[in-house]
Amino acid sequence: MKAYLFPGQGAQFSGMGKELYSSTDGKKLFEKANKILGFDISKIMFNGSREDLKQTNVTQPAIFIHSVILSILLGKSFNPDMVSGHSLGEFSALTAIGSVSFEDGLTLVSKRAKAMQSACNLNPGTMAAVIGVDHKLVEKICLDTVGIVVAANYNCPGQLVISGEMSAIKNACESLKTQGARRVLILPVGGAFHSPLMEPARDELARAIDDVSLTSPICPIYQNVTSLPIKDPETIKANLISQLTAPVKWTSIVKNMLDDGVKEFIEVGPGKVLQGLSKKIDSNCKTKSATII
């Protein structure tokens, strides 16, 4: 059995998607994306600086566009038994498996990015990677820290990301260092994603999702909020909304997929972040990048 994985924010790089643009079908899809968004995102993807690509209204659509166009160009070789996506990647995965159209998926991602940016402006915050301590200790320190700080991404054993208010993140990081964390690193992100500080974006995203027609996908999607396989469109919608303020349960997702019979993980999109995390969760699992032959 094969599982296809779709990366989230942070996987972007200048030049992403150039090889996909070289085909006629790929070029048409990039041009369609530019028209939907109302600006030339392909130009930024191919030639933009790191700073250009870090803007949330660019980053999220860019990764979505790269991942989904790649899945389309794979044609019949894209035949997943199950899929999952890390945060933003959940939208790419749903589009790739036919639950939502390319147009609606990209529009949703664009609205999500703008709503999240507005929430960041309203409630400034940040995130930090924590390496080398058990997740239970991280959760305890978050609870004991004054202010808003939560475990946001359970990426793999010994690697979590915390999210919250600036001062709370700083204090939690200091506590984690004294409690034996091998490394604590404040991340260069624009806000406190997957935390209560994203609550202001919920209503706007909920309205956008309610306006879109989701159909039952061709295979189950293991969603971030529950880490369980889902095919029911209404449940998928509810989980997409909850994902804004809930943690990404990536370790559980990969373990559940392995328990359900996955023999190979194939990453669809820029970078190899999810392949690396999969190997850290189970060193015996097979991984590779999706490529156009």
Tags for this model:
293 residues, alpha/beta, Malonyl-Coenzyme A Acyl Carrier Protein, domain 2, Alpha-Beta Plaits, 2 domains, four-stranded parallel beta sheet, 47% helix, 15% strand, globular
What portion of residues belong to β-strands? Answer: 15-25%
- Strand line-up of the largest beta sheet: 2-1-9-10
What is the string of SSEs from the N terminus onward? EHHHHHEHHEHEEHEHEEHHEHE
Q: Roughly how much helix do the residues carry, as a percent range?
A: 40-55%
Average predicted local confidence, pLDDT:
94
* DSSP E strands, number: 10
User: What is the overall silhouette?
Assistant: globular
Name of the CATH homologous superfamily of the largest domain: Malonyl-Coenzyme A Acyl Carrier Protein, domain 2
CATH structural fold name of the largest domain? Malonyl-Coenzyme A Acyl Carrier Protein, domain 2
* Count of runs of 4 or more consecutive helical residues: 13
Q: Please, how many domains?
A: 2
Would you identify the CATH architecture of the largest domain?
Answer: 3-Layer(aba) Sandwich
* Radius of gyration, in angstroms, nearest whole number: 18 Å
End-to-end Cα distance, whole Å, is 21 Å
Which spans of ≥5 residues are poorly predicted at pLDDT below 50? Answer: none
Largest sheet: 4 strands, parallel
